[in-house]
Write a structure and sequence with these properties.
Oligomer: single chain
Shape: globular
Radius of gyration: 16 Å
Largest sheet: none
Structural class: mainly alpha
Distance between the termini: 37 Å
Helix content: 55-70%
Number of strands: 0
C-alpha cells in the first residue's frame, strides 16, 4: 500500500475507505443475497448497481455530507455512467457477460454499474438536503427495481 502514499499516516483514509466499502458489502449481502446464476441479466445488473452503489457511496468520503454531489465534474461522471448503463440495458445477450464484468471492474470511474448506483444514491441524498431517511428507504426497497430509481432521476 505504500506505493499509493509516502507515509503510514496517509494510509489511514485509504484503509478506512476500504474497510467501509467491504463492510457495506457484508451488511448488504446479509439482507440481499447475490442473485443466482439463473437470474436475468437485468436482475444481476440491478444488484451490481445497488450493492456497489452503496459500497461506493459510503466509502467515497469520510463525510458524504461534505461532498458537492451536484458539481459539474460529478454530473459529467454521472452522465457518462448512466449513458453506458442505458446502452447495457438494451444490449444483446452475447454482450451480457462482458457488460456485467465491466459494470464493476476496471478503473474507478469506468465501473458504470457501481458509479451509476453511487450517483443514484448520492443524488437522492443531496436533493433531500442530506437526509439519511431517503437513503434508508432506497436500501429497504432493495435492488429489484433499482434501475427505475436510476432512470427516473
Amino acid at each position: 500500500m505504500l506505493d499509493y502514499v509516502d507515509s503510514v499516516e496517509k494510509l489511514m483514509p485509504i484503509i478506512k475507505s476500504l474497510l467501509t466499502h467491504e463492510y457495506s458489502h457484508a451488511c448488504l449481502h446479509s439482507d440481499y443475497p447475490t442473485p443466482d446464476g439463473k437470474s436475468s441479466f437485468i436482475s444481476k445488473l440491478q444488484y451490481i448497481c445497488f450493492d456497489e452503489g452503496f459500497a461506493h457511496f459510503l466509502s467515497f468520503h469520510e463525510n458524504v455530507k461534505k461532498i458537492d454531489w451536484l458539481d459539474n465534474e460529478k454530473l459529467q461522471k454521472k452522465g457518462d455512467a448512466y449513458n453506458i448503463l442505458r446502452q447495457a440495458v438494451s444490449s444483446s445477450i452475447d454482450e451480457h457477460s462482458e457488460l456485467l464484468m465491466k459494470s464493476n471492474s476496471g478503473a474507478y470511474w469506468d465501473k458504470f454499474g457501481a458509479i451509476s448506483g453511487m450517483f443514484a444514491i448520492a443524488g437522492t441524498f443531496a436533493q433531500s438536503d442530506y437526509s439519511y431517511d431517503n437513503i434508508i428507504k432506497i436500501y429497504e426497497d432493495g435492488y429489484k427495481n433499482f434501475l427505475k430509481e436510476i432512470f427516473d432521476k
